[in-house]
Structure formats: structure tokens, C-alpha cells
Amino acid sequence: MTTRIQRPASFVMFATLLCLIVPATSFAAEQDRHVQVGTAGELDVALKQIQHRRESGDSAAVVIRFRPGTIRLRSPLVINQSMVGEGLMFEAIEQSKTSFSGAVQLTPHRKEGRYWVYQVPETETLNQSPTVLLVNQKLRRSARHPNVGYFRIEAAHKDRRSGFRFRAGDIPTDVNPQDDPCQLVFLHDWSSSRLPVREIDHDNRQLRTVGPIGCSASHYAIDHFEKQPRYYLEGHRAFADLAGEWIYDAERRQVLVVAGSEKEAPSIELPILEQLITTAGPNASPIENVVFRGVRFTGTSFPKTPGGLAGAQATMHEPRDGNGDRLTKNRPMLSAAIHLEQANQIHFEHCTFAGLGNTALWIGGRCNDCVVSDCQFQDIGGNGINLGENNDRRVDEDTWYRAAPQQVPTNNRIENCKIRHCGQVLSGSVAIWAALNRRLQIADNEISDCPYTGISLGWIWNPTPSPAKENVISGNRISRVMQVLSDGGGIYTLGNQPGSVLRNNVITNVPLNAGRAESNGMFLDEGTSGFEITGNTFRRIAKSPLRFHRAGQNSAHHNYWELETDRTPPVRYNNTPEKNVLLSENEVLPRQPRIFLIGNSLTWDTRPPLLDDYVDWHVDCGKSLQFIHDRPADPCVASSRHWPIALAQLQYDVLSVQPHYGTSLDEDVEAISAWMKMQPAATLVLHSGWARSETVESEYASKVSDMMTHNVAYLDALKSRLQERFPDRMIRETHCTDALHRIDQDIRSARAPLSDLEQLYRDAIHMTDGEGRFLMHNLMRKAIGQPFSEEGFDLAKRRPDLHRYLLRVIGEVGAE
User: Alpha helices of 523-682 — where are they, by DSSP H?
Assistant: First the structure.
């Protein structure tokens, strides 16, 4: 469902004025309400002028327009109603070309060995080592070990809190937190803790932290959910082994970034501010009629306390002091880059939130009729969006929602937004967290690649009546959530919310829980009541599409779900009477085939996104299978799914692998065998790739079979060795090398509508976007067992003769 955006009425008057731009920071005339700025200083001057006009009695709406560039804030911009008047708009002249940043740009000091060295200016106060940087505008945590995946503890200490025994070989022997500080990131079922490491005893394989691991409640003990839970380490110099990884030298106030093959130093920005924009405070007058359009928000820090933090659900946490003791009696939520309270008719349109160390946007308590539309959220340390508030605030010595239910946030909307890669620092984060709301609409958004739940709605763990009601979550596409933690889902609900609807959402790729508790398509948790669940589609959900836990009365009808096995129940009831859930006319979908491709740019030249069914890939340019197996952390194609995670999370029907130069037969056999063991039911496709255009025939004529070469001898030897190890497995080939040999022979005898084989190449080794990729894409389809396809190519219209010829080659090569 899409709802038409209605902007604050005050801005209707500007429909004919938006084309006007004032080339200075003052208003051109009394009747002109536009001002253009391009720096933080100009913005400050403009806001002071606006404030002066308000104080003089001029309350008319104003538009501040921003030239392209970065406005580096030295303190948060505080918006109050006396500034807003009848309306205030912040608009980028070019969408996403103006950034509000809380980070300082660091200048490369020099290159020292394998590091680029950046000096932090003395003017910047750093009480602790930073948790995040922006490396070429992308959010990056400090160097991590291991680079991909996690370790599992061997056993918790007797107190189940102070530390654990680690497995032999997991932590390098040169890691000493007394010489170079590092942090433990510990994963509980639905949360994570980030704590300084106090000591590591390598002889006895013991690690101890500053303060206890986990929140104070008993169920956060190290081994409560699992006996061998997961963890990883961050920040030590010994962990910096990938280009772009960084560490901080506190003594010298230097950031050290691992150099790669780049000739120039990468752009490094150090986030300083936690907040970019906020409102005046809980006792101030509500603000109304503010619009942000086309602005990019970036460069906030992760709020770090001396003793780290123990995380709970959805970024709630217990901050610790330097001794590891709690700093608060309650559990605050992570701060947000933009945090609004008591705000009405606030609009964010076509904005970008990227490279933020904490939560991106918080439309908090007593906010009504606010809209976030067509915005993008990516690389976020905490939650993507918060809506509403938790239960801490008191009114007349009682919880706010009981004493003043009229204060519940009402009629807010999140629509047509894309939220990816939230929870990059605190894994227990969600894409959209909505506590107690009334008539909230979350519609037509895309949510993907998040460590925990996609959308969380509700914040009372029982069916007690509350102001929460008539909320609608509809038309969202939620994929690859629950990628790190467990006990959540694409959509998660709590409490009694009568008249609420979960409708027409598509939820896919929720993996098997890594912890003890299930992860599901939708997890309808404690007290969930009053929901209609209808028209939703579920695919590749490792456990049940729906799970109810201590839930009340709900209905689920006309939903469509693919079940992982014939033993997977579509609905699981945990302490919920089945009679509480009215099921009707739901349908089981046939299983959609799944394909995974591993290789380099010659795999990418087969156009994996155009294949049928469900397709994932791990593509690293110019790399061999041995390299990809040993160093999977940083594939060149950004849409790649890291193979250690993908192959562990999902069972595929087809596994394609592409040998490449630089490996021996033994090395390729070992790497491919390891992947085949992870995917015991998958058909293996050997994608032969192809030689450089100038060596196609010389390689094909070669009889070398022990080193990777694009010839029949090597591919036959590889297939034979693998078949010996896996005699019951189907192994097929793309025959790309055979196809190019056949075409070259036809060219030489004038039987092909080409004058030279190089006409299929766009450079020394890659295929042209048209005929070359058309050929390789359909050879891949043939090997996988998919029908021939023209989609994405115009060859039939552009070169019908070549089109007919290549179809014949595709049909004939590899034929039995």
C-alpha cells in the first residue's frame, strides 16, 4: 500500500518560489523566503538571521537550500519552534550531493611500511579509541579477528561472567591487551556485548574482560543459551591484515590504515559527533512543519564508554565505567544521529543516511503525522529508524503510556525506503524499531542484510491493554535478516495491538538460528494480540514462517509459504494455545531452486543476476579458487554473499565454481571439495572460464593437467578427481573453453559471422556486454539446467546472423 505524501500546509506557498536561489547568506528581499548556504559557517549565519526575523515577528515559512558539498558540524543543530515559525525546509539543490557530517577529514601524514598513517589533530578531543571510521565514505570498524565469521568459546569461567577458555589456535599468541588494547564482541542469542579485554593468558587459553560479560539479568550469562557461544575480537594491531582495515595508536594519536594496491591514500574521516540534529528538549514547545529533502547525513560516532557495554534487545544496553560497573540503573537505547521529540509534521524526503556509527533516525516520543519517504539507510552502526519511546518516561509517577495514553505517537509513516546493513557495530539492532504507536504505517520498504530483526513493533511483553492499536505493516520486502543473531524474524511483534495488520509483505532468507532459539519469518512474541496476518509470502525460511509465543487472539489467512523441509511446520506455537490463532486458506508454495556461484570476473561475465530462480554469488576479481577459499572477507563485487556465511546458512541445489590461473590441480581439488562438503546435495557445475584472447588456442592445445590451464586435459583431470571423492554427485560443465575453441576454428575456416575471436572480448580477457556475455550466460544456463534466455540482451535484433550462429554453438558444445 502506498499513501500519498501530504507536506505541511505552510510550504504550499513556496510552489512558485522554489526556483529562486539567493547567492548569499542573507535574504534578497522582504518577500523572499529562500536562502542558499554551502558551509557550516554560512548555515550558522542563516539560522541566526532566521531567529532574528522570528523575534521581530516574522513567522513566515523559510527554505534553506544547500549547495553541493559537505557541511561539517562542530555541534548538533538544535531545532526549536521559535526558529521554525510557520515552517522550515532544509533542501539540497542536488539530491544527495549535500552532506551533514559529524566527522573530521584526516590528512594522510605519510606511508609507513604497510600502513597509511593519519594524524588526529590536537584540536579533536578523543577520550577513547574510536570504534568506527569512514574509509572512502564507507563505515568500517577497527581491524577484526577473524575477518569473516566467528570463534566459539571452549568453556565459560566458573562464574559464567568474567571470561572464558578459548580454543587452541583461535587467538594469535602476540595479542596482548596490555601492549595494544582490544575489544571482545560477544554474541548472545538476541544481543551482543562489546567489552574491553582485561587479559589474555595464552598458556592456559583464558580470556578475561573488564567487567562481566552480558547484561545483569541471569539469562545473559555466558553459557545460558549455548555452552559454546560465538565471539570475535577487534582493535589489536595483529588483526590488521586486509586492505582498508585500520587500528588506532592512542599514544601517537594516529590512525593506521592497511594499504592495498591503491596509489593514493584512501579518504579517512573520523566521526566526532554522536548527534547531527536534535530538538530543544523534553520541556520545550513542540516543533511543527519541518522538511528535510535530498540531504545526506553521515559521520556520527558510536557512543563508547570506558568499560564498554552489555547489549540487550534493539540497542538497549547497560553502559559500563572503567571498572566494568554499570553507569545507569535503566537500559538506555543507543543514541541517534537525528533525534526528534515532541514533533509534528516532520518530513524526510529523498534523504540518505549512510556511514553512521549509531542509530540513524529517531522520531521519538509525542511525535505525530511525521513521514519518512523515499529515503536510503545504509552502513548504520545501530538501528535504522526508531519510532516512539520505551517505557522509562514517567508522568505523575507512573509509566507514561498508562498515565498519559494520549501521548502515544500517532499517524506516522515510513514508506518507500531502503534500509541495508544496519547493526554494523551493535548486532542486536533492527532496521525499524517501533515501540508503542497508534495508526503507524510501515509500507513498501526494502529491508535487507541486517544482523537481527527487520521490523520490530510493540514494547510490552504481555497482553495488557495500551494505546498501541491500528498499526499497519504492508508491502515490505524483507530479505537476509537474522544474519548474526537468533530469536527474531523478518517482522517481530509484542503486546496487545487491536486492529493491527501485517499484510502483503514478502519475507525471504531467514537462516537457521545460530543460537538456541528459532528465527522465523514472523515472530509473534509475548502478548501479541489483535493482529490480522494476511497476503504475506515467505521463502527460504529455515524454520517455521510463523511462530507465536505466549500470544493472544490473532488470525492468519491467505498467506503463502515455502517450507524448508516436509517436516517443517508452517506455524509453531510456543506456549500459545492453537485455538488462539485462526488459520484459514494459507497455501504451501513449491520449493524455488537455489544457485550459488563462486569465481572471479569470468563468473560475473555469465550475468548471474539474469539467471532464473534464486541466485547468490561470491565474486572476487582476478582471484583463484584457492585465494577465494583462504581470503573470503573482501570480494570485489559488492553484492556478493561471503561464501563461509552463505554456504553455512542455506542449502543450494547448484554450486558453480570457476578455476583460474595460479593454482595447481591439488589446490583446486581441495578448495572445491571443502565447498562440496558444505553443500552435500548440490549439483556441482565446473565453470571453465576462458583464456585471454591471444592464448585461447595455445592453452587449448596444451596437455598440461596438473596446473590450472584452460584446456580439456586440466578440466577432465579436475572432474575425475572430484568424482572419485564424491562418486554420487552430479558434476556438469559450462564448456565455455570448448565453445571459444569451436568458434575460433569456425572463424579460421570462414564458417562463423566473425572476422576475429577478439570480437567477443571487450579487453584482453573479459567478454563484450553483448555477444560475449550472451554466449557465456546461456552456456551457464545450459549447465545449470535452465532454458535459453534472451533477457538483458539485444543480439537477436542487432546481429541476427551472429545470434543464430551462437545459438547453434551453445546447443552443440558439450553434447553427449
Answer: 601-604, 625-630, 643-649, 665-678
**Is residue 182 classed exposed, middle or buried when 0-12, 13-18 and 19+ CB atoms within 10 A define those classes?**
buried
Helix (H) or strand (E) holding 92: strand 88-92
C-alpha dist (Å) from residue 505 to 386, 413, 765? 20, 16, 43
Strand order in the sheet with 254-258: 108-112, 115-119, 254-258, 246-249
The answer to whether the pTM exceeds 0.90 is yes
CB count within 10 Å of CB 801 equals: 10
Copy the grid coordinates of residue 108.
Answer: 594522510
177-183's contacts with Cβ under 8 Å and 24+ in sequence apart are: 177/236, 180/235, 180/236, 180/237, 180/238, 180/247, 181/129, 181/235, 181/236, 181/250, 182/233, 182/234, 182/235, 182/236, 182/239, 183/233, 183/234, 183/235, 183/308
Give the max Cα distance, the chain.
93
Q: For residue 715, what pLDDT band results from cuts at 50, 70 and 90? A: very high
Tell the residue number behind the cell numbers 579509541, with chain if given: 129
Pairwise CA distance, residues 294 & 350, whole Å: 5
Q: Kindly write down the DSSP assignment for every residue of 330-350, as one continuous string.
A: S-PPPPEEEEE-SEEEEEEES
217 by DSSP, 3-state: which? Answer: coil
d(Cα 581, Cα 553) in Å, to the nearest integer? 6
Strand, coil or helix: 248: strand
List, edge to edge, every strand of the sheet that includes 731-733. 614-619, 594-599, 654-657, 683-686, 731-733
Question: 344: closest CA among 386, 288, 290?
Answer: 288
Nearest to 497 by CA among 537, 453, 454, 467: 467
CA distance 508 to 511: 9
Q: Output the pLDDT for position 125.
A: 84
Position 245: which residue type? E
| Distance between first and last Cα of the chain | 52
- C-alpha distances in angstroms, 69 versus 46, 100, 211? 17, 9, 43
Query: CA 303 → CA 333, 757, 799, distances in Å?
Result: 11, 58, 59
**Cα–Cα distance for residue pair 627/598, rounded to 1 Å:** 11
Q: Kindly tell me if the per-residue pLDDT of 498 is higher than 90.
A: yes
User: Residue 137 to residues 96, 379, 576, 711, 722: CA-CA distances in angstroms?
Assistant: 13, 10, 47, 43, 43
Neighbours of 558 (CB within 10 A): 14
Q: 170-212 pLDDT, tens per residue?
A: 999 999 999 899 999 999 999 999 999 999 999 999 999 999 9
Q: Please state, in angstroms and rounded to a whole number, the distance separating the CA atoms of residues 410 and 289.
A: 16
Cis-peptide into 146, omega within 30 deg? yes
* Bridge partners (DSSP) listed for residue 584: 557
In 136-286, the DSSP E strands lie at: 138-141, 144-145, 151-152, 155-156, 163-165, 183-187, 192-201, 206-209, 230-234, 246-249, 254-258, 268-271, 277-279
Distance between CA atoms of 358 and 336, rounded to whole angstroms?
A: 6
Average pLDDT, the chain: 93
* Band of residue 110 on the pLDDT scale cut at 50, 70, 90: confident
- 35-77 confidence digits (pLDDT tens): 889 889 999 999 999 999 999 999 999 999 999 999 999 999 9
